[in-house]
Design goal:
Two copies of one chain form a homodimer.
Chain A: H1 6-20, E1 30-31, E2 37-38, E3 47-48, H2 51-63, H3 70-73, H4 79-87, E4 98-100, H5 104-118, E5 125-129, H6 134-147, E6 150-154, H7 159-162, E7 167-173, H8 185-194, E8 198-202, E9 221-224, E10 239-242, H9 286-295, H10 304-325, E11 332-333, E12 345-349, H11 353-362, E13 365-366, E14 368-370, E15 374-378, H12 386-400
Parallel strand pairs in A: 2-13, 5-6, 5-7, 7-8, 8-9
Antiparallel strand pairs in A: 1-3, 4-10, 9-10, 11-12, 12-15, 14-15
């Protein structure tokens, strides 16, 4: 980078990086507004092409014309497993272990109570990430109260060492929603399993941004949303992963009729399905579910390793551009610098963060604000390019300049 | 009716009834396929006009263009309460007591556990309709297990007499999904309240078909789906009613971040909202929620008393047509004859019911089959007319003729 014209240098560098980006053409798979740099796909993913047409067909033909027959003829009834199997490879999971249904919070409750019931009898502790997204902590407290466990908060960076023979269940976020810190899924999972505890991961901020490897690392249970890096739409249904080895013992606190082995027998006795359907509860939300199914087409032929490589390149480049454009001392990154500890976002602490983000948004750079002092920028490799990143950092520099 | 030509007489009678039907013009508010008589709106309501266009706008503009800003600018965040307030008058509930979210099964779990926690300490029984829709029984068993209660099955026709000082919670279906029997909501609710128990009603098969009167009868908690008589779409989100007097004490087993009094403060301590938002859990499913919101426009200016009057006229006329057209002994109605015990469906028991329903559907009469021997016909006064009813019965007669 020259000392004399950082803008010229970084703009040229962005163009080089975009030209060499093998994922760059995937942006065509999304409908994005003109003139906007969208760095909030870690909160709500952009609209994939095809979703609007699919919704029109589901509403007008499948619902309007076929009516009740669509539960069979349009394969609505089996959508939770089918869409689950479309999510599964993005999580490193073999088919038959993921169902899509309900919200992340509801799936967390199933996973934590179900996890407590899978754990060895007599254990008392539910270890929970002390810096977790709030709903995880609230739901963990309820699950603990209803299963006789005690919540023990842990620093997620030191979770592996906190797991002991009295630990029933461990719940961690794979990536911290605020700082963007990536936690060590393989090591913590191994520690939990070595201690005989059940490991539950919340993948909301990692799935679709980096390889997760649920099967490879022996994770027991996992949950996550589909509206961030998976681009499923606002409030799209979440997912629950139940490792195959646990499915016949998984004892859900929400044993709705959809989890019955023969739901339309409508029998008063509850006999749960012996597979991932055990994670289902009530009638699936078809409009949102099928929008998500089409949205996942954006992942056709995409390797998560390539996504991860581009994600790190994007966040590295953003940090370099911020260093070049923003006067020293105005912002401080709270996202870890080492790649192995970084998710796909950069969080910058600054004064008046709410006002700064408002100003960025008014200039077409959409990130978000997290109280009290954080500017949060998410980098979604399927549709964000390096020129976007340069422009975002340059605009931030102008606001402070 | 003449002895010589029942078809001519009943066809003429249907035309008279349709001509006098003040709700007949509401059919224009729906998109229905040509040539079909749809008598399964008690399972999946028909597509209301306007829903397809609304979905296109939500997807392409609110999601695609406004992106994350729509949580505020398109008022997505407050949709559960806003749509709840649009459902409320259909249930006889004042504003501020209904939230739309999650499935019926999940809302049942909230209501039963929350109900158990509202009940006087030391009580041991959870009374449940022995003939209930299965998910109610399965979820009741889980709620009982997790709150220390014991499920006691009761004949819903004699529920009021079974409630005693050891009863914590009573759960009944307002209308039986199979027989169409309407239970006595005012009397059972009064008995529960007199005994100090918490009364929970499942309104899936009554809401939108007849007046419910939640506030007038002092119901404590209620749940129901929105995809039957409310026409919200396949798997549309369900609702939870929490009577205003209980909202500050309602202790949800699913205390997700959406139920926090200040969710975006993202604080680790849980402080629930002091109103119906306490029934929310996770991020609302916006595509389905807003489709439902538009679907509810079909109720503009409709009095539930008129709906009830037409519903009874439809089922009466159907039973008369069946008596005239179907050879004696071929079918037997298991739906109660007295109006005060009848919902908005007719269930006919017959041999080979599955095959008979298949034949009806192939002739354009859509009802459904419920194992082992029931033909189920739902009568939705907003879009079913008397000529439809006559044709359905006549077709049934042909099959047996």
């Amino acid at each position: 980078m020259s000392d004399t014209n950082p803008i010229q240098d970084l703009t040229a560098r962005a163009a080089e990086l975009d030209a060499a980006d093998e994922l760059g053409k995937l942006r065509e798979r999304f409908v994005l507004p003109d003139g906007v740099v969208y760095l909030d796909g870690n909160s709500l993913g952009a609209l994939p092409a095809g979703v609007t047409d699919r919704l029109a067909d589901v509403a007008s033909r499948e619902w309007g014309e076929l009516l009740i027959r669509s539960w069979d003829e349009s394969a609505w009834w089996t959508a939770p497993e089918r869409v689950g199997d479309k999510v599964a490879p993005l999580l490193g999971a073999a088919p038959g272990q993921v169902v899509v249904a309900d919200s992340t919070s509801v799936n967390l409750f199933k996973a934590l109570v179900g996890g407590a019931r899978l754990a060895p009898a007599g254990r008392t502790k539910l270890l929970v990430d002390a810096s977790t997204f709030p709903t995880d902590g609230y739901i963990a407290a309820s699950a603990a109260r209803m299963t006789g466990l005690t919540v023990t908060p842990v620093d997620p960076a030191h979770a592996a060492g906190a797991i002991d023979g009295d630990t029933a269940v461990v719940l961690l976020n794979h990536v911290d929603y605020r700082t963007g810190r990536l936690h060590d899924l393989p090591a913590v999972t191994a520690a939990a399993r070595a201690a005989g505890a059940i490991m539950v991961w919340d993948l909301c901020h990692s799935a679709g941004a980096l390889p997760v490897g649920l099967d490879a690392h022996g994770v027991d249970l996992a949950v996550g949303c589909t509206y961030k890096y998976l681009n499923g739409g606002p409030g799209a249904p979440a997912y629950l992963y139940i490792a195959a080895r646990h499915q016949r013992e998984f004892d859900s606190p929400l044993p709705g009729w959809n989890s019955h082995t023969d739901p339309f027998a409508l029998t008063p006795d509850y006999r749960p399905a012996d597979d991932a359907r055990r994670g289902r509860v009530g009638t699936p939300d078809i409009l949102s579910m099928l929008a998500l199914e089409t949205a996942l087409d954006a992942w056709d032929g995409v390797a998560m390793e390539s996504v991860r490589a581009k994600s790190l390149a994007l966040t590295d480049f953003f940090l370099a551009c911020v260093a070049a454009y923003v006067p020293q001392g105005k912002v401080e990154s709270i996202t870890p610098a080492p790649h192995e500890q970084r998710g796909s976002q950069v969080a910058l602490r600054t004064e008046n963060a709410r006002e700064v983000m408002g100003e960025l948004i008014s200039r077409g750079i959409i990130g978000d604000f997290r109280a009290p002092d954080v500017l949060r920028f998410g980098f979604t490799p399927l549709y964000v390019g390096f020129a976007d990143v340069e422009r975002a950092a340059r605009t931030l520099g102008h606001i402070f300049g």
